[in-house]
Amino acid sequence: MSTRQSMEFRAEAKQLLHLMTHSLYSHKEVFLRELVSNASDALDKLRFESLTNSAIKADAELAMRITVNADEKTVTISDNGIGMNREEIIDNLGTIARSGSKAFLEKMTGNDKADSNLIGQFGVGFYSVFMVAEKVRVITKRAGSDGTAIVWESDGVSSYTINDTERDGHGTDVVVYLKDEEKEFAQAWQVRSLIKKYSDFIVFPIYLPNDKGEAEVVNQTKPIWRRAASEVTAEQYDEFYQQALGGLGQKPLCSLHTNAEGVLEYSSLLYIPSQPPFGLFTSFERRHGVKLYVKRVFIMDECKELLPDYLRFVRGVVDSEDLPLNVSREILQKNAIMERISRALVSKTLGRLKEMAESDPKSYGEFWKNFGPVLKEGLHTDYENREKIQELLRFQSSMGDSADDLVSLKQYVGRMRDDQSDIYYITGESRDIVQKSPHLEVFRSKSIEVLYLVDPIDEWIINDLQSFEGKSLKSITGGALDLGALGKEEEEKREKAQGELRNLSERIKNILADSIEDVRVTARLKDSPACLVSGDHALGAHAEKLMKAMGQDVPVSKRILEINADHPIIRNMNARFEKAPTDPDLEQWVMLLYDGAMIAEGRMVADPLAYSKRVNEMLAKISMP
User: Fold this and answer.
1) Exposed/middle/buried for 179, CB within 10 Å: 0-12, 13-18, 19+?
2) 29 by DSSP, 3-state: which?
3) Which of 123, 316, 370, 568 has the smallest number of CB atoms closer than 10 Å to its CB?
4) pLDDT tens-digit profile of 130-159?
């Protein structure tokens, strides 16, 4: 029975292959980076499995060897790693990472360099070879298997073939048959240059023949995280970020290199990215970016046990001397050593962010723009570090001229008015909406700063941020306003007007009985006739809107209508009421007042058609001779 199979690529794979083969990428050289990275992964897997599975034996030296043949226009990348059997090669090379290819295609921007740097982030790295190859042959044999070797071959158009073959020992050979116009990649000097550029920090030796035909190691083999920080340059840190951690062509904002010795021994190299990594804000897929090694043996990607969810944007490597090599995710979740490493990493990361905030506010502002909403999650989930996180928070405020003008809680407290006892804030969808809120009027008149909480997560974490340095945080849209000594004059006027407008207030309350809980004279308005306020223990309007948008059942809570006794509309309404308490037009004016308050806080009126009709009728009466 023949062992040869001819198989078609899936439709999605064909689309990706066509893109790879016919693109005009100027960054075609990344194919070598991806093939070397794949070989490194195969060596990592063999090293780990040989330590945990007695049936698998590793060679004395795990390495990859690259050879070129300028006459035949070929590049061959060989490794003595884990290898693949027939089923694995179909899974790994026949489906192109299934969902990964779709995600890659959706992320495409049309920018050659940026798109080329995306390769490898979505499990499609191997197929970048078809940017330069007219044909690729993969010969592989699974370690620990008694079966034959397998040869996979394709021109990257629509199909591939698989057959049995022979290979001495386990591992994989990838033979790239270059297109005529890409023959430069069959030059040894070019390959050497690309290895130094992209793969210099691969932990396994990469052999390449020198001018005398002798194989020599062309990359550095001591992991960068194992070196002393004094031995590593800023350029080398950036190179490692690009080569090993998926820098996507972007430099990191900063790095944090630690070699801990003593009771707890580990090395770590962490980076704060300059741009949000792919999948950061996908709620159903909390992807982490720190790799775990034990005694230089790769254990797992995306190790969620090293850093909490609110630091999932951090990229890097952690290498422990104390964890067992056969550690599993289940063991990590209960391991005391892991918990201690994690606490140390969290403390160092938050400390590095604080240092950046103090010494380089511009870079920290860039960090906050990209990762601030994620960091805020820690207020709710990390009680131990809540105070440190509070120091890192930044907010827009009424004192800032734009969204780029951010203030810390410490800065806010430092510039509070002498008689001010609380920190005031308002929540909403955006700066444009909240800065127009009528609730701000008395605060502007008294030059009292108000924080703008305009991230969706702010509504959920505000209860975890009740105070800072002894100052309570208070919403300006909920409960009765109490400015203390700063509002003494307004409060005296309010109490006097409350009595004068008691009857009108009762009438308004009766008219709006289905919509509001109460009517009261306000001390918070200067220019607007009315505003809506949440009760002391009720959800705010913005919180209700967010919950409804998420499909959650929101308990019905009536708002409080506050009226401005000094506004001409309220004075005229009171005069009309005193003259004719049953005037039918009064009801229309009250309804317009309520609708106007709804619109002022950025909400839709309950019945737009009725509102429009009401406005037209009242305008018609005003215009009558």
Assistant:
1) middle
2) coil
3) 568
4) 889 999 999 999 998 888 999 999 988 778
Residue 455 structure tokens: 């991230």
pLDDT in tens, 196-246: 887 887 889 999 999 898 999 998 878 889 999 999 999 989 888 887 776
The residues, any chain, with a CB within 8 Å of residue 370's CB and separated by 6 or more, are: 273, 274, 275, 276, 313
Closest by CA position to 434, among listed 459, 417, 413, 412 = 459
> Quick one: three-class SS letters along 156-186?
CCCEEEEEEECCCCCEEEEEEEECHHHHHHH
Please give the Cα distance from 456 to 36 (Å, whole number): 42
Give the three-state DSSP class for 75: strand
Report d(CA 573, CA 569) in Å as an integer. 6
Question: What's the mean pLDDT when you consider all of the chain?
Answer: 85
What's the pLDDT at 104?
47
Residue corresponding to tokens 């370690």: 143
- Per-residue pLDDT tens for 351-375? 999 999 999 999 999 999 999 999 9
Q: How far apart are CA 489 and CA 497, in angstroms?
A: 13
Q: Are strands 74-79 and 171-178 parallel, antiparallel or unpaired?
A: antiparallel
What domains appear along the chain, each with residue ranges and CATH number? 5-217 (3.30.565.10), 224-361 (3.30.230.80), 486-622 (1.20.120.790)
**What's the pLDDT score for residue 615?**
83
Q: Which of 223, 271, 277, 269 is nearest to 248 (CA)?
A: 277
Phi, psi of 521 (to 5 degrees): -75, 140
